[in-house]
Write a structure and sequence with these properties.
The chain is built from no helices and 7 strands. By secondary structure, it is an all-beta fold.
């Protein structure tokens, strides 16, 4: 069953969508990271083996059971903001941009 989605963020090679229930879908492809030419195997948010998605595909993460209200996509990482103000991040974090420490 198809669901209506609003495109919320677009980067050079991937897009992120939030559906009416606050769930995230992504599509696009992972490309080599600019500074060290390594691929970002988690850029799409579907695990390290998923490097290319032709259609928006629901992400496996449930964001801790919260609804996404906003997203941002950059060339090597993405961020999602939940209704309670929590921030989730994924992608290439070699320079600390994910904030995971």
């Amino acid at each position: 069953r198809e669901r209506a989605a609003t495109p919320m963020a677009a980067a050079a090679y991937h897009n992120i969508f939030i559906d009416g229930e606050g769930r995230l879908s992504t599509c696009g492809r992972s490309v080599p990271y600019a500074t060290d030419e390594t691929s970002c195997p988690s850029l799409l948010g579907h695990g390290e083996g998923v490097m290319h998605l032709n259609v928006p595909t629901l992400m496996p993460s449930t964001l801790g059971g919260e609804r996404a209200v906003s997203v941002s996509a950059k060339s090597s990482h993405s961020l999602a903001l939940t209704a309670s103000g929590c921030v989730w991040s994924w992608g290439h974090g070699g320079d600390g941009e994910l904030g995971h420490g």
